[in-house]
């Protein structure tokens, strides 16, 4: 769950420090996150596996729509092994070519800045069996990133089709929230408006 004191950091992450996003976008992202936090019950973790039950009980804070920005959508029972674009070091994993795979749509100096901010991801859990998928119970919107060098547009289309997602497009790389924060905001707001 996002806590109030984390909001400026999240908005700053999403609204690029290199001037690709205006101050208005940053303020709009902060407003969006504050509304999400205000509408939830403090301390409730909004895992998708509890969303259907919470919705049926009429509780606030449930997930009513999922927005998937250029991500893998696996079926229940799926298990994958080590991924070729990660370097595994014990309990940690790092993207092998972050500038080329994650930030390929950004200017080289901006990609370098964002690459320097990356930290490791935990290596455990990536090869576990998928035991629940929220998209079976919750409608979704897939933001297909046409310049994504990590997940091809064809692969993203397969992922979106698997989840029966509404597809929205943008001309961004894998980290669309950095390259095109305004477009991400438009897609999230449209999805939120569809369930309001």
Task: Report what the structure shows.
The protein has 196 residues and is of the alpha/beta class. It is built from eight helices and six strands. It has a three-stranded parallel beta sheet with strand order 1-5-6, with helices on both faces. It has a three-stranded antiparallel beta sheet with strand order 2-3-4, with no helix packed on it. Strand 2 and strand 3 form a beta hairpin. Helix 1 crosses helix 2 (23-38) and helix 2 runs parallel beside helix 8. It is globular. The chain starts with 6 loop residues before the first helix and ends with a helix. The model is unreliable at 1-23 and 36-49 (pLDDT under 50).
- The portion of residues assigned to helices is 25-40%
The outline comes out as globular
Radius of gyration: 17 Å
**What is the residue-averaged pLDDT?**
76
Which secondary-structure class do the elements indicate?
Answer: alpha/beta
Give a short account of the largest sheet: 3 strands, parallel
Give helix and strand order, one letter per element, not per position. Answer: HHHEEEHHEEHEHH
Give, in spatial order, the strands making up the sheet with the most strands. 1-5-6
Number of helices, where a helix is a run of at least 4 consecutive DSSP H or I residues = 8
Strand fraction band? Answer: 5-15%
| Poorly predicted tracts of residues | 1-23, 36-49
Number of strands: 6
Distance between the termini: 21 Å
